[in-house]
Design goal:
The chain is an alpha+beta fold and 328 residues long. The chain has eight helices and 14 strands.
């Protein structure tokens, strides 16, 4: 894929962030999600790719979505797989909480894991310093000790990040008993996974079960950043149950980074919607708005922080002030 595409992908996440950011704190996560989806879809259809959405967000809670199998782009080569989350953290935007993002991950056709019928993954992720030191089959204590040794720290100096969910109560207790610090989050495990590879984030390791789509998107970013991740598909979701799980080998296999995102010709782009550990949120000022984005290219490992000023009167309606009218 040509390097010029990286800026095209940022345009996609910027549009979604500008549209949904107007609804921050308005208490309507569906309206914010719909605004992000509509904006992302509209801009994607101007990008010179022949893309297929292989990871679409929204199916597990019947939210608006770019659906799995949807075609995006103008239909010209390169042919690519697309993983999207137009609004990662719908509750975060609705409540005005930190770390809501718009994200896309792109790879050549056939290079992203397809698991459309599975909603959740068990995950463990770390940054470059601890690459190769994690084992999802090992205990929490063993993983923390291995990461601490790789980073030349004590376990008590490590910070583990994890979604605050009832299913994680035992896992959180194990982390605390091991002596590590714990950072609980309500939503947003893409930004949480990436934070393990950002030196200034204060986060060292991610544990726990989160969304499968988010796992694939996170894997693309971590691979470019030099981090590490292991996952296992979790068969039961909110609305569906896989029949006879014990006979399905997918749920036994440990997925490595190369299983989730193959090769090096990868792109990742994210734009902040609300302020977070990694990106600033959208700032509106009269007829203009400012965005903060991160774009990464796998073949060169180039990482760019992009701060952009947008003249809203020159933007399509889906990113203008009229987006605020979506709230019922």
């Amino acid at each position: 894929m040509e390097r010029e595409l990286s800026l095209e992908f940022v345009r996609v996440t910027e549009a979604a962030a500008l549209a949904s950011g107007r609804l921050m704190g308005r208490g309507d996560k569906e309206a914010a999600d719909q605004a992000a989806v509509d904006a992302m879809r509209s801009v994607f259809d101007t990008v010179h790719i022949d893309g297929t959405v292989v990871i679409g967000e929204g199916e597990k809670d019947e939210a608006p979505m770019l659906y799995t199998g949807e075609k995006v782009g103008v239909g010209k080569e390169p042919r690519v797989d697309v993983a999207v989350d137009p609004l990662e953290g719908t509750n975060l935007v609705a409540k005005g909480l930190p770390n809501a993002l718009s994200v896309v991950a792109i790879a050549p056709e056939g290079c992203l894991l397809k698991a459309a019928d599975v909603f959740y993954m068990d995950k463990i992720a770390v940054g470059p310093k601890a690459r190769g030191c994690i084992d999802i089959n090992a205990s929490v204590s063993e993983n923390l000790k291995a990461v601490a040794k790789a980073m030349d720290r004590d376990v008590r100096d490590l910070t583990a990040i994890i979604l605050e969910r009832p299913r994680h109560e035992d896992l959180i207790a194990e982390i605390r008993e091991s002596g590590a610090r714990v950072k609980l989050i309500t939503d947003g495990d893409v930004s949480a996974a990436i934070a393990t590879s950002i030196d200034t984030s204060g986060v060292d390791i991610l544990f726990g079960i989160g969304g499968a789509p988010e796992g694939v998107i996170s894997a693309v970013a971590l691979k470019i950043l030099g981090g590490d991740m292991q996952c296992r598909l979790v068969p039961k979701g909110k609305d569906k149950t896989v029949e006879d799980d014990s006979k399905d080998e997918r749920f036994k296999k440990v997925l490595m980074l190369d299983d989730l995102a193959m090769g090096e010709d990868l792109f990742f782009a994210a734009t902040g919607i609300t302020d977070g550990d990694m990106l600033n949120g959208v700032r509106y000022s009269g007829k203009s708005a400012e965005t903060h984005s991160l774009v990464m290219r796998g073949t060169t490992r180039t990482i760019r922080n992009i701060r952009a000023t947008h003249r809203l009167e020159r933007k399509p309606k889906f990113v203008s002030e009229e987006a605020s009218c979506r709230v019922k």
